[in-house]
Design brief:
This is Rhodanese-like domain-containing protein. This protein is an alpha/beta fold. It is built from six helices and seven strands. Strand 5, helix 5 and strand 6 form a beta-alpha-beta unit.
Length: 140
């Protein structure tokens, strides 16, 4: 105890550095990346190696304005009512992505409720996809 009192500044430095190490995890959680969130590089790996399907849950107008290349549009409003565009094999990984203001965690929960067993969200959504310089396309 006497050591801690005599070296309070070392304890403070250790606590601050520990907090800074946790900061990226806290930012990811705040950006819509919950427990099942993956980064963009992990998302690309899942698409290429595990046949993951990228599902954009933005509404049609937002999807047409710009979406990740290869993403299937399944608007959040249609997820509960037998959506078209989702794979019939419910064991394949689904990666849920959305634009600003889209609650991808809610959409992922709805997909899990529909029977899909491996549903993950893309942390940071479409903004992170663009920031990683991954391809984005617009619909006509």
């Amino acid at each position: 105890m006497q050591f801690l009192i005599a070296n309070w500044y070392l304890v403070l430095v250790a606590l601050v550095s520990g907090g800074l190490l946790l900061l990226p995890s806290l930012k990811q959680a705040a950006a819509g990346g919950g427990a099942g969130a993956v980064g963009t590089s992990e998302a690309v790996r899942l698409i290429n190696r595990e046949k993951a399907t990228l599902v954009d849950v933005s509404e049609a107008a937002a999807y047409a304005a710009g979406h990740a290349t290869g993403a299937r549009n399944v608007p959040m409003s249609t997820i509960e009512s037998a959506p078209k565009g989702l794979p019939t094999n419910k064991a394949l990984p689904l990666l849920v992505i959305g634009g600003a203001g889209v609650n991808v965690n809610r959409a992922a929960g709805m997909l899990r409720k529909a029977g899909y067993t491996d549903v993950r969200t893309v942390a940071g959504g479409l903004a992170a996809w663009r920031e990683a310089s991954l391809p984005v396309e617009k619909s006509a």
